[in-house]
Amino acid sequence: MPGDLFPPKAGAKTAFDRLQTTPKTDVSLPEGLKTPKRQHSSRFDISEKRELEKLPGFHEVPANRRQELFMQKLDQCNVIFDFNDASADMKPKEIKRLALHELLEYVANNRQVITEPMYPKVVEMFAKNLFRPIPPPVNPVGDAFDPEEDEPVLEVAWPHIQVVYEFFLRFIESQDFNTNIAKAYIDHQFVLRLLELFDSEDPRERDFLKTTLHRIYGKFLNLRSFIRRSINNVFFQFIYETERFNGIAELLEILGSIINGFALPLKEEHKLFLTRVLIPLHKVKSLSMYHPQLAYCIVQFLEKDAALTEEVVLGLLRYWPKVNSVKEVMFLNEVEDIFEVMDPAEFAKVQEPLFHQLAKSVASPHFQVAERALYFWNNEYFCNLVSDNVEVILPIMFAPLYENSKGHWNRTIHSMVYNAMKLFMEINPTLFDECTQEYAAMQEAAPAKAVKREQMWKMLEDSARRRQAERNGKSVNGKANGPVARGGSPMETDDEQNSRENQRKMDALNIHDENKKPVGLI
């Protein structure tokens, strides 16, 4: 991992610690009034000499003096101002802003104006204006910062920052731009410092960074492998160390375009990126901040190589959320996107584990989870896959669908379950009847299995009493030392565990008569 991307050492005083010790305001906002967007200027290295004089425009000087004027304007743009004080240096700030716009227009509207001496000066100006430490996000009210709820920090220096980005993009996109000259200045260190800026809270800056890094990736072939590795390092640090980085969505958007351009067959390096980076990104708590871009990258990989389907689906099932309903809905959205590009042969490899999870989602008491899972049956391609593999899928899905048809609290779910059951019945009525009879038999056998289970527990209790009495030197017929706590026993068979669960479901659905004989199902 590049040194610039390492987290702060343990015990080191961070900006977050210092900010936490600052006094907090006692002013409270009226109820219902949103907190205004926080603004600040990052830790720019403010110039000591900030007096500027306006230089003439490019059209005001002869052509042989324009390169010299270009360099002078670049020097003016190297002066850094403090935007936290809006009233300070107002005239020099405006002179710099105008100089930036003139440089932008000069490069955009003229040909054969970029010369070799300009390259180091342009890169230097870009670095001085933009490369700076990005402070960690802090909620000024004192609560923990929540990127999903709190407003982002906006850079007050944006009037200058924006034009610097626009000028640099115009410069490297120019037809006169020479990559062979520029690669001496736009190097590994430049890329690493650019990646650090992706942690900016200002979404406007991250959008420009996304475009800038993508342009560099496209033009500098010698940097492509390094850029991919460096982005991987950012992801690794985010997944396994900090779980906090603002630019994950933008980096994934860049990678989505890069993946789309991968040549076939895929390199092993690219497959490892999928399994070791993209799939583990699903486990982070802030998944909602970048999930659309992540799902797009996953689908791009599967469109490139269908053989990766099994690894992707099993990886999603490994990180499937257990208690986070919002996150589970996102997973279901992604699974449907995967279904759209899934090869029928690959579907057969993952249908059992995948539909066992879908059965749990359909049976979820959270109606949005159950509803999203049942929406799959509105997808024509999904229904075709189910129809071709109904012998495997229906036995898995029958019990949760039937029980939800009567037991779910949400009426919308009832109608959606009915449509799914109707589809299964139309696809294979014979198999549907067999599943119905099997379910009825299982429910009918549940009381007998419950009795057998009670008898086994009694035998275990008696055995435990005898052993305890023998250890205490008492008679076998002596007084019991107390009941054995009941629960999941290692001696309990799978059938007995299933019967206990089925008994619970049967009681919840109230589908038995007074003699505990099951009645007709449908």
Automatic annotation (TrEMBL):
Pfam assignment, any one: B56
Positions of the region Disordered?
A: 1-43, 462-522
> Which InterPro entries does the record match to this protein?
ARM-like (IPR011989), ARM-type_fold (IPR016024), PP2A_B56 (IPR002554)
Q: Tell me the first and last residues of the signal peptide.
A: none
The highest taxon in the source lineage is Eukaryota
Q: What is its main location?
A: cytoplasm
What molecular functions are annotated in GO for this chain? protein phosphatase regulator activity
Similarity comment: family membership:
Belongs to the phosphatase 2A regulatory subunit B family.
Question: Which purpose does this protein serve, as stated in its record?
Answer: The B regulatory subunit might modulate substrate selectivity and catalytic activity, and also might direct the localization of the catalytic enzyme to a particular subcellular compartment.
UniProt xrefs under PANTHER family: SERINE/THREONINE PROTEIN PHOSPHATASE 2A PP2A REGULATORY SUBUNIT B (PTHR10257), SERINE_THREONINE-PROTEIN PHOSPHATASE 2A 56 KDA REGULATORY SUBUNIT GAMMA ISOFORM (PTHR10257:SF3)
Q: How does it assemble?
A: PP2A consists of a common heterodimeric core enzyme, composed of a 36 kDa catalytic subunit (subunit C) and a 65 kDa constant regulatory subunit (PR65 or subunit A), that associates with a variety of regulatory subunits. Proteins that associate with the core dimer include three families of regulatory subunits B (the R2/B/PR55/B55, R3/B''/PR72/PR130/PR59 and R5/B'/B56 families), the 48 kDa variable regulatory subunit, viral proteins, and cell signaling molecules.
Protein name (record): Serine/threonine-protein phosphatase 2A 56 kDa regulatory subunit
Species in which this protein is naturally found:
Ascobolus immersus RN42
Please spell out the taxonomic lineage of the organism that makes this protein.
Eukaryota, Fungi, Dikarya, Ascomycota, Pezizomycotina
